[in-house]
Amino acid sequence: MSTTVQQPDGVAADAPAPTRKPAAGPARRPRAKGRATEALMGKVAVNGALVLVTLYMMLPLAWLLIAATKDMGGLFGGDGFAFEGFHFTENVKAVSTEGDGIYWHWYLNSLLYAGVGAALGSFISVLAGYAFDKFDFPGKEKLFGGVLLGVLVPTTAVALPLYLLASKVGLVNTFWAVFIPVIVNPFGVYLARVFSAGYIPGEVLEAARMDGAGEIRTFFSVAMPMMMPGFVTIFLFQFTAIWNNFFLPLVMLSDQKLYPVSLGLYSWNTNAHAYPEFYPLVITGSLMAVVPLVVAFVSLQRHWRAGLSAGSVK
Amino acid sequence: MNTSLRAGRRRRKTTAALFLTPFYALFIATMVVPIGYAIWLSLFTEKTSGLGFGGTRRVFSGFGNYADALGDDKFRDGFVAIGLYCLLYIPVMVGTALALALLLDSALARARRFFQLALFLPHAVPGIIAALIWVYLYTPGLSPVVELLESGGLHWDFLASDTALFSIVNIATWEWIGYNMIIFYAALQAIPREVVEAATVDGAGPVRIAVSVKIPMIRAAVAMTMLFTIIGSLQLFTEPSILSDANPAVGSSWTPNMYAYSAAFRANDFGLAAAASVLLAVFAAALSFGVTRLSSGRRTA
């Protein structure tokens, strides 16, 4: 809280990442030859360290990619990092046909839980964050304190109580048991308040009011478009969180038809101990479940990077 | 004019209430009520009547479930396990993320965008899939890593009882380094350039600048990361659950969360499960309060 909120131009989605000019001016001068080699060594050390850690981070993903092209024999026999025989299409086919295509059922469920849940959830967060930032009302900071408390309570510590409650009201093992709880995103409200403060100048709202626009109309036609990059960030992170959610579905669901991909893969993995032919299914299925997230993060990098910056600088 | 102003203010209050209602309705329904219900349930215990033919009765037991949970070695061991885990995990993960952010922020780094994206990508992998991949990479016969170590003459059993902690820390570190690195990097980028330049003019080297200028200036981001990391660590469930299939040393109640889960779904003791969940939530809240106070206290000092 000691630093100020980042200026809107700093969080703007299309702003190029600020790069600092190399401060190694003196080293370029010919008389400082010792300094130049020192700078070169520094450059090698810095980038070398980055490359090493990147290799560590990429190793499991590379293995997943290669392992998804192997059949049972290749998986347990040969060299883990070598392509030997290309069985990727067979593996995808096996994943798709196992249990009457249950995998795609799971996939569709995940898309519903994460896609619809995150869209609805980020919209609700933006509404609340905007209200906290732009309106004055009694008990405002106390209410916001409730939001912050919600950020601090571990979500898995709430999952079991949620199950107990859901079994009381008869919602256990239904779509809603997983769908409703994941919509709530206190951290999204916090971020939305920061975004609203950063993106929407008060004067713009005043102008809209002067023109006679109602509050709701002002929100939808003026504020919402200005907050769009913030909305995308909240959506993306909530989508990921729901897609990756494992504990809540594990607790709530027993009907395989309602499983999201994460829980489905878990159940396949449990089978794999007794039936090793499930290993290729788990591996290829995992790869297929990771792809949409990787694509989303790579294509929307500007948005989430800006979003994380705004959230962390506050 | 005055009346229209007042009308505008009233209208805004109504709009604020309208905008806040969906969030708070859901917040109350999915967080406040369940926790309240868990507290209520935790005060009761199920008693089997007679020989067990008459079904079960719920009997008020006051703090009996809390006493049972706190008196159970397995539950307490869970907190010890989390404590040890944090001792290893937090310095390694936060330290590496901070070091990477500083490296990227230094003038010497190349291809910043590529490194940021490559280092972040593991975070997009669902925790359960990350755990599955790593357990496969730990399994002899399946894993090229184990094979590589063997061929180098190194015998490291990732699935032994005394390496379990390391194996879990490694998975979590892999998942979270990139995310926190981006946060630190963003905070570093927000440092006014003049501050760094002034230190350079004063003759401070890059390491000196990183340690005594840059790190103190992003203290708030580091403190917040620590807080979220501790809360996240308390919830540890997925990684040890997956690993427990392959490593018997990781039992079914290795963490407090796993304890609560097995109390509910293996022993069907909802009272005990509710008490364990409440204790975990209270512990998390108290700890975050402490960490927040500690970091803000240090800042004002």
Explain this structure.
The complex is a heterodimer of chains A (314) and B (301). Chain A is an all-alpha fold and 314 residues long. Chain A folds into two domains: 24-93, no CATH class; 95-313, Orthogonal Bundle (MetI-like fold). Chain A is built from 16 helices and no strands. Chain A is globular. The N and C termini of chain A lie close together (6 Å). By secondary structure, chain B is mainly alpha-helical. Chain B has two domains: 1-29; 71-300, MetI-like (MetI-like fold), CATH 1.10.3720.10. Chain B has helices at residues 2-41, 64-71, 73-105, 112-120, 127-138, 144-151, 164-189, 193-201, 206-217, 219-234, 238-246, 256-265, 270-300, and strands at residues 44-48, 56-60. In chain B, a hairpin with a 7-residue loop joins strand 1 (44-48) and strand 2. The longest helix of chain B has 40 residues, at 2-41. The model of chain B has no long low-confidence stretch (mean pLDDT 85). Chains A and B meet through helix 2, helix 5, helix 6, helix 7 and helix 8 of A and helix 1, helix 3, helix 4, helix 5 and helix 6 of B.
